[in-house]
Amino acid sequence: MLSKENPENRTLIVNHGGIPPLVQLLSYPDSRIQEHAVTALLNLSIDETNKKLISKEESIPAIIEILHNGNIDAKENSAAALFSLSMLDENKESIGSLNGIPPLIDLLRNGTIRGKKDAITALFNLCFSEQNVRLAIEAVIVAPLFQDGTPKNKECSVAVLHRLSTHNSNLMLAALQYGVYEHLVEIAESWTDRGQRKAKSILQLMSKTEQIP
């Protein structure tokens, strides 16, 4: 709670050695303690310097383990923590290599509205890495992209699909098989400027690959 909203508290906690014991608690055999530990680290990671310190403590494997096996609140905050830590380029490929993408896709498929948002934003950030684009495709990301509820989440899904499809034209056919064409047309015609740009770009890519008229 101290780390939630007060930047000064975040600095004090870190300066007094708070990160290592919090990382240790990520592996404590109690789901509520794991949840509180990952949430505290998420809050601390808002500070850019703290992102590096948290990463140096080898926290990512334990956060991914909670994403696999924690309670739903812990999973959601683990996804948000991975998004925050993946702002550092060196962490993007580490998260992918440590099998962090499949549980994010599972949360996208089965989480709450908030969980889906946390998952899709983390996946968007991770897919700036070409390695992670391949891993996301292998983990069957396309199907759940447009089954995640809110307009904001769907708009973010368009951004993820855009990033994936620019790396892999074969993905277009899979996307069409999962019925995304109608969603893309709707977004291209009536949503925010950002969503419209991404949707129109994907439709153009589909047309160039002769997978739509």
From TrEMBL:
UniProt feature coiled coil, ranges: none
PROSITE patterns in alphabetical order: ARM_REPEAT
Gene3D superfamilies xrefs: Leucine-rich Repeat Variant (1.25.10.10)
Claim: Repeat is one of the keywords in the record: yes
Keyword annotations from UniProtKB, A to Z: Repeat, Ubl conjugation pathway
Repeat positions for ARM: 17-59, 58-100
One Pfam family of this chain: Arm
Name assigned to this protein: Uncharacterized protein
Organism: Anisodus acutangulus
